[in-house]
């Protein structure tokens, strides 16, 4: 059986490089684990390091949002004989493609190892926690994040869910050590994801302010007009931490992947039906006002997002110069992607035609455009989407009884200003409309590839797939998977 090695020194490197702003009381090469975990604050800082690690360019900071994973779907124009072109051709034998998938795989397991280090020390140093709920919240976030990352590893490197016997087995790593970690069966891996999630939900439910306060309160702790006044800053901005509702949303996403539609429906419904104390929906779909306010990334929909302080630079470096672009005519976007509705907010607001210094014109997505400075807490949109409300509406449209599912699709469409489209008359047509929305809604976020893989969508239905591409959702096991 194939095996996987996690090396402790990689985790040491993670903490020393990513968390130096927290851990500068000692020289960076001299911070021992017992120093890091000898206080409650040390655990908080270590968890902050995990979130920083997740935002690495080889993870959710680029590769698993608008980078590598979107190149698999030919979301961007490519130059001949580049790694992006080979990704769009599903050429997994290309050395540059191998390197990219190696980097993602390694980074994800490094982050998991850092999580496991925290979890291990939580139990041995539990006495350092003096404030009620902090131990439970840290442990729950770690378990939830461990499930989230392992699930994405399965979605990317594992089998198509309808054919679980064909494809890679992976290691679900729950210990921080230098031991070899066995690959386990598809079903056992699945069980461990849900075990982590269930325990995380039980631990955090009593202590997460997300269940008590509105999203505006949570996004603006201690601010004017906010009812949320946390005594501990660690409990601020729960929308950018792996909160209780993010766990339920992940439960829904994972249940759908594994074909457990009833559980996917229940978990999504719990989130969508959540209410604030005044009876308003806690998680609303965005409308045209978000686009008008230049909130193109729709932070109001983020059930869980990662704060990216350098997102303005990320946009400039990748989109402002048209490195990531699609087409030289507006019809590529308006007609091919959105169907030329003339009303869809995404069609009219989310893309921009820019002109470079050499006169070239390209369509560039505005999703990651943000204002770097002079913003308030509530207008700071520098946030990477990890799970959004819109995805749960699409899950409900797919998993609810047909008539009810249509209503969820109608609601989703109405909030994107495309309520005039034809209503699906049967389940296959509804499924086809849902998959089209994954492509439109999550362009540049990575979720469309997973939807295509889950349903084993054939090439003719993959918008922008090259004519010479041979679609292959089964990635090979990365060559960094084992160390000789």
Overview of the structural elements:
This protein has 484 residues and is mainly alpha-helical. It has a domain at 1-189 and 459-484: Serine Threonine Protein Phosphatase 5, Tetratricopeptide repeat, CATH 1.25.40. Helices cover 46% and strands 6% of the residues. The chain has 19 helices and 6 strands. It has helices spanning 8-18, 33-36, 40-54, 68-71, 83-88, 95-124, 134-157, 186-204, 215-219, 244-257, 261-272, 288-292, 311-320, 330-337, 345-349, 389-399, 402-415, 427-441, 447-455; strands at residues 3-5, 180-182, 302-307, 351-355, 361-365, 383-388. It has a two-stranded antiparallel sheet with strand order 1-2. It has a two-stranded antiparallel ribbon with strand order 3-6. Strands 4-5 form a two-stranded antiparallel sheet. The model is unreliable at 1-31 (pLDDT under 50).
What characteristic shape results from the CA principal axes?
Answer: globular
Radius of gyration: 22 Å
User: Roughly what percent helix?
Assistant: 40-55%
Proper CATH architecture of the domain at 1-189 and 459-484 = Alpha Horseshoe
Please write the string of helix (H) and strand (E) elements: EHHHHHHHEHHHHHEHHHEEEHHHH
Low-confidence stretches: 1-31
Strand elements, count: 6
**CATH-assigned fold name of the domain at 1-189 and 459-484:** Serine Threonine Protein Phosphatase 5, Tetratricopeptide repeat
> So what's the CATH class of the domain at 1-189 and 459-484?
Mainly Alpha
Q: How are the strands ordered across the major sheet?
A: 1-2
Mean pLDDT equals 91
Count of discrete alpha- or pi-helical segments spanning 4 or more residues: 19
Distance N to C terminus: 15 Å
Strand content: 5-15%
């Amino acid at each position: 059986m194939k095996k996987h090695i996690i090396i402790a020194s990689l985790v040491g490197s993670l903490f020393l490089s990513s968390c130096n702003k927290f851990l500068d009381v000692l020289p960076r090469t001299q911070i021992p684990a017992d120093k890091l975990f000898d206080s409650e604050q040390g655990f908080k800082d270590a968890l902050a390091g995990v979130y920083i690690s997740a935002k690495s360019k080889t993870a959710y900071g680029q590769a698993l949002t608008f980078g590598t994973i979107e190149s698999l779907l030919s979301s961007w124009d490519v130059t001949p004989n580049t790694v992006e072109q080979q990704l769009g051709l599903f050429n997994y034998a290309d050395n540059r493609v191998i390197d990219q998938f190696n980097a993602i795989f390694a980074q994800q397991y490094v982050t998991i190892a850092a999580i496991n280090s925290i979890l291990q020390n939580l139990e041995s140093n539990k006495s350092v926690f003096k404030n009620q709920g902090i131990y439970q919240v840290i442990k729950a976030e770690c378990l939830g994040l461990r499930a989230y990352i392992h699930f994405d590893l399965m979605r990317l490197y594992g089998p198509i869910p309808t054919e679980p016997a064909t494809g890679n087995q992976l290691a679900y790593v729950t210990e921080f050590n230098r031991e070899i970690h066995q690959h386990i069966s598809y079903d056992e891996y699945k069980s461990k994801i849900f075990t982590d999630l269930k325990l995380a939900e039980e631990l955090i439910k009593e202590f997460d302010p997300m269940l008590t306060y509105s999203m505006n309160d949570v996004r603006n702790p201690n601010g004017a007009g906010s009812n949320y006044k946390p005594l501990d800053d660690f409990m601020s901005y729960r929308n950018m931490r792996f909160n209780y509702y993010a766990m339920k949303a992940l439960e829904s996403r994972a249940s759908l992947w594994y074909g457990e539609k009833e559980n996917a429906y229940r978990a999504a419904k719990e989130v969508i039906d959540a209410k604030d104390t005044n009876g308003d929906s806690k998680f609303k779909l965005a409308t045209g006002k978000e686009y008008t306010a230049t909130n193109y990334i729709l932070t109001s929909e983020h059930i869980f997002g990662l704060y990216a302080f350098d997102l303005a630079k990320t946009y400039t470096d990748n989109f402002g110069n048209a490195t990531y672009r699609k087409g030289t005519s507006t019809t590529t976007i308006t007609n091919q992607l959105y169907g030329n509705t003339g009303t869809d907010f995404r069609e009219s607001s989310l893309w921009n035609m820019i002109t470079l210094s050499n006169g070239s014109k390209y369509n560039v997505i505005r999703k990651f455009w943000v204002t770097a400075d002079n913003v308030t807490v509530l207008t700071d949109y520098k946030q990477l989407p990890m799970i959004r409300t819109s995805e749960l509406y699409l899950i409900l449209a797919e998993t609810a009884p047909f008539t009810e599912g249509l209503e969820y699709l109608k609601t989703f469409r109405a909030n994107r200003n495309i309520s005039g489209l034809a209503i699906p008359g049967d389940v296959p047509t509804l499924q086809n409309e849902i998959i089209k929305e994954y492509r439109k809604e999550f362009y540049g976020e990575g979720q469309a590839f997973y939807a295509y893989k889950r349903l084993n969508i054939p090439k003719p239905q993959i918008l922008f797939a090259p004519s010479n591409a041979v679609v292959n959702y089964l990635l090979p096991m990365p060559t960094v998977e084992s160390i000789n």
